[in-house]
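assembly run, all chains below
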Amino acid sequence: EAQVTQNPRYLITVTGKKLTVTCSQNMNHEYMSWYRQDPGLGLRQIYYSMNVEVTDKGDVPEGYKVSRKEKRNFPLILESPSPNQTSLYFCASSLHGRFGGYSLDEQFFGPGTRLTVL
Amino acid sequence: GQQVMQIPQYQHVQEGEDFTTYCNSSTTLSNIQWYKQRPGGHPVFLIQLVKSGEVKKQKRLTFQFGEAKKNSSLHITATQTTDVGTYFCAGLGNFNKFYFGSGTKLNVKP
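ok done. output:
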């Protein structure tokens, strides 16, 4: 089944304790992205990746890191989490980003990771 | 910075009534996508509009992209309880950054 998976689905942690949220897609998509969703603010893009080894900042990248060593995986790293990073996080992928003449395709979202930082 | 505003924030309708949500961008968008998120779920793609003035229909849903490519709307005719959820617009701005609207939460009373 074509899907985007995220782990963990729920996480409660404490300030300053490094954590990683994994994201994996099995659709051979080139474009992957991380979003955070907060009440009243919609989804805000944290980082995105056009392809392997190519990542770039979205609208709210502060306090986050990403890596794209393989096409299928795009982990989100919080080196020193703080309470203002408490949020619902979504990973998404699409076949292409807008590059080389392609138009951006529909994004497939993972099920979400609810993170609480105490 | 670039912003995508969406109104209304909430809409409560009686089943059978129509519903419209509006999306406005501070800058020109290269395309706009619409997503639906059911309560407790993840966003699910509905449609993408690319051309200025484009109108697309999916059964009871009508999507429009403004002539200036700075606004868009989603209209649902004769709502049903299955339409409940939050509807988001998302525009592709500079480079490959995506900007989502804050969403319109639709509640349909049977």
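The mean pLDDT of chain A is 92.

The CA atoms of residues 94 and 106 of chain A lie 6 Å apart.

not gonna interpret more than that til we talk
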